[in-house]
Amino acid sequence: MTALSLLSVRPSKTALKAAMAMAGLAALAACASHPKPAPASGPVASSRPAPSSSGPTARAPAAVAQAVLPGSERDFVVNVGDRVYFDYDQYNVRNDAEPLLAAQADWLKKYPAVKIRIEGNADERGTEDYNLALGARRANTLKEFLVAHGVPGGRITTVSFGKEHPIDTGEGEAAWAHNRNGHTAILSGAKMAGG
Fold it and tell me: Is 144 left (phi over 0), alpha (psi -120 to 50) or beta?
């Protein structure tokens, strides 16, 4: 047979089915020879703070395996943490928030061109005016902490959103605990990927 006559031959339905079955068996064999790796032992870090009796805890996220540009906004969010939580009707820094805020201060001292805005937030309970004032006190308390830990105050602005920007739209204590927070947003000076 010539090459031209081979091209004109059509496979039969039986031959096509047999070829497909062989391909399926080959795929199964390949999967069987490469089992999935066993999961690492120990607890898996959650991207959401673990709730406690007084609400979410502030913690610095564990470093991720993928490459994150040092000094970038993603580096700050992923490897330091950008949010701390407050108790009901309070604006003092909780003990569980101090390590995260200290890590923020260290990061900001390492990258002196970065300017930030601290956003104070409250849960939905209370009047708009009361929550705006509480959010402002929360933001200012966080700014004072960072300044006391060596970050120049001129690099930090504050704003209160009161109850206007909830991060948890649910109802009840768990949602309210998430919404009582101070968020550190990078405004400028962070490194950009590819730049």
Answer: alpha
Nearest Cα to Cα of residue 152 among 182, 189, 180, 181: 189
88 with 100: CB under 8 angstroms? no
The candidate with the shortest Cα–Cα distance to 119, out of 152, 166, 55, 67, is 166
Where are the domains positioned within the chain? 70-188
pLDDT tens by residue, 128-177: 999 999 999 999 999 999 999 999 999 999 999 999 999 999 999 999 99
Please, what CATH class does the domain formed by 70-188 belong to?
alpha beta
Q: Cα(35)–Cα(155) distance, rounded to whole angstroms?
A: 51
**Which residues of the chain carry a pLDDT beneath 70?**
1-55, 57-66, 194-195
In terms of Cα–Cα distance, which of 151, 111, 114, 119 is closest to 137? 119
